[in-house]
Structures are given as C-alpha cells and as structure tokens.
C-alpha cells in the first residue's frame, strides 16, 4: 500500500519539463495522506498542475477523516465512491518514490520504491472537487493501487499503478472510456522498479529533511 510519497523536483527530468508548467509542484521528502501535494489533470483541453488534498472527498462525504487515500483497481466500478471519478476524472501524481514498510523481527523497516534510473513515476489516481465549511472549491484525490510483482511482494502486496508517459494524455482524457483506462492498471514491469532501505526517521510524517530518504543499504533490483 502507498503510505507515503517522496516528491523531488520531477520537472527537472527532460521527459516532464514542459508538462503542467504553469506552476511549480509541491515538493516534499515525506508526503503523508491528508496532506496537500500536486497532481496533473485535464482542464479546458489542457493538462494542468493543481494542488490537491490526498484523500478523495466527494461532496456528500461528511467526515474528512473518512476520505480514502487509495482505491483498489479491482473495485473501481463497483464502489460509488470511485465509479464516476474513474469514468471521467482521472489524474496522475508525479513522484520520485513511494515508501513501503517491511515487517521484520526488529520492527518495520521502511523502503523507498523508485524507478531503477531514478526517473519520475506517474502514479494513477482519481480526483474530485469539494467545498468545506462554505469555503472555496478544492481538489482531492486518491491513488489507484494494483498487486505488486513477485519481485516486490516481499516488501508490499500493493503499489499504485504507474501510467507510462506515452499514455498520459489518453489516461487523463475524459473521453477515454473506463474500459480503455483499465488497460494501464496492471503491476509495473519488475525491471522498472527498485527499492532500498531508508532511515526509520521517515516514520514520523513531521520529518521533512531530505536526508531521511537517503539509502541506508543497497538498492534491490529485479534479476531474471
């Protein structure tokens, strides 16, 4: 499951330098659910970078703490919370890593799952708009999770689906059907991702120093 996100400046990567360039993304080494971060979504036939609350918040949701931060790909069409958003309001969350925790005899060890070449990852998501206490309208989102590959199964059983850059515009387009969009909701190829252990200081969401996410051991990569 995606419990935390690592978001460095992904706009420095050549492949994403011109995407959603109207504003700078929110950066953080340790983004937790129910915090604000940046998403890419469609608006007025263009891709826009927007601030959004991590926790999908439909208009009818009365308790903000009940806003789900992840949605299982297998239940998107069967749950009213996710059905409409999956059909018409898909987004991606550009990140530089996803934190997971492996249970061991010494407690839970955090790992950072990243692209093996440390390129950005476009995590599949859903978004909706909400208004709280008669304030301005705001965006919110949830990540879409899928089972992990066998390689990462020892660390976590689920991770957010990753949208290929070449499919970004199609994934975001409202006219893309849910059936078409589902084609990308599959486990990432095992050779795409690696994982390395990091300091347990990252367990505290208040920790925002980048050193918390530095490797404390070698990166584990898939080997055929």
From TrEMBL:
Keywords: Covalent protein-DNA linkage, DNA damage, DNA-binding, Hydrolase, Lyase, Protease
Keyword Repeat set for record: no
Enzyme's top EC category: hydrolase
EC number, as in UniProt: 3.4.-.-
SUPFAM superfamilies: BB1717-like
Family listed: Belongs to the SOS response-associated peptidase family.
The protein's name: Abasic site processing protein
